[in-house]
Amino acid sequence: MTGTERYTHGYHEVILEFYRRRTAEVCAAFLLPRLEPDAAVLDMGCGPGTITVGLARRARSVVGVDTSAEMVEAARRRAREEDVDNASFELGSAYDLPFEDDSYDVVYAHQLLQHLSDPVRALREARRVLRPGGLVAVRDSDYQTMVHAPVESALKHWLRLYHEVAGANGAEPDAGRFLPGWVRAAGFVDPVVTTSTTTYADAAGRELWGGMWAGRVTDSDFADHAVEGGFAMRGDLVAISAAFRRWADNPSGFWAWLNGEVVAVKPGLSAVVDH
H helices of 28-136, where? Predict the structure, then answer.
């Protein structure tokens, strides 16, 4: 993202705790079979670095880039704590990556493009830094596919509200379904398109998702954007928060959605990471 763009989620601690649970095994499962151990990888929008560190264990080197200095420092701490010495982290924008042309074998982005006002521009920048034959691998949620039970009107209100707030910020909350088109528009070829589901239906999952949003809907940047944009009153957000808490406490609670995933090739020589 650039400094002029508005990140819908923000960096409240309840959000960061959720991000710290992300792993390469889950979030990059669609890429791992094509990732060679001699690959140089760029993780675009790396956040606190948990996925980056996982990728580093499977590749020659990984560089994580994020627009947040706080996230870059957190990712560096994570790599040190896990004794991973082939991962490094830099401050930078997906629109203006601080790297030379043809520098990487793989560019990976997890849940990044949905927050950008111009995802195709970011993908073209990814193509620039990829070597000919290199791979781009992107994964994003599709919020419109979210289903939950028991059904509550306040939670249905939240989903409408999320679309309104994200849209006003120039984002695309249903990005998962648009990834194939964006990747093609950026000049990549031979896309392999898959989907995976995220499901929260046990006690730990309900506490993770429901507890996170119970706090996030009232206390994070999302809450400020909703109120400042005139999309909700504080009382609406309190009601939604309570609904998320009720859902999290319900032993029959279920929540799931689709993630779109694409791996595609920069035109040129045969991919060095796809033997």
Answer: 50-56, 69-81, 119-129
